[in-house]
Here is the input.
Amino acid sequence: MKNKELKRSVEKTEDGSVTLFVPELNEHYHSVHGAIQESNHVFIDAGLHAVEKESITILEAGFGTGLNALLTYFDTLQSGKKVHFVTLEKYPLQSAEYEVLNYGALVNKEEGESVLKQLHEALWNQKVEISDHFSITKCHVDMKEVVWQDIPAIDLVYFDAFAPDKQPDLWSDEIFQSIVDRMNKEAIFTTYCAKGVVRRSLQAAGLTMERLPGPPGKREMLRGQKR
Ligand SMILES: C[S@@+](CC[C@H](N)C(=O)[O-])C[C@H]1O[C@@H](n2cnc3c(N)ncnc32)[C@H](O)[C@@H]1O
Here is the structure.
């Protein structure tokens, strides 16, 4: 993918939430079986709910639609935990694209739309407080060019890049090693991907890996922990 812009169209998934489709890669941003369902399963249930700390720094690979950030925000309202959400994105959505996402109303009728808007409007490359419990730093950057020493120590990784067969260079030993080196002891790494080559690469970088049942439509996913 060489272009600065990424062409995308909106599609409905099976749980009623929408996703984006990238014709150039023949790839969706989420599972067509349900975008919200997949994000809740892979990142919130298998990731956020497995971290025991009260104050959590999350690193997300691929901010995209902001769905993982939105679900994490509303989870902090329930749990009372504090989250600093650091997210990497090379191809930010235009306002015309994020304005048609239907996640806000589906996730929280009263406040969902306004929170999703705040997440997208938050300035890039600086820490923005969305609430007492949730701040976000959106880094407009190519994942291959991150200065890893500038990333705060991580408690939880949401690895949500496009699939390894579409963007193999983002699932490299080098990127995984850089991420694992920034992870605190006991930190958790979660991804929708279940490929053996990814599991082995994360293991070689220093994580203890397990396969978990995937979201509907997908048999397995991966989770790792730094011990
Ligand atoms: C599978 S999508 C998921 C995004 C997001 N987590 C969501 O729920 O919408 C992958 C994301 O990675 C971003 N991306 C692609 N190549 C990238 C790169 N080299 N560096 C940083 N982000 C990249 C895409 O623009 C897209 O937003």
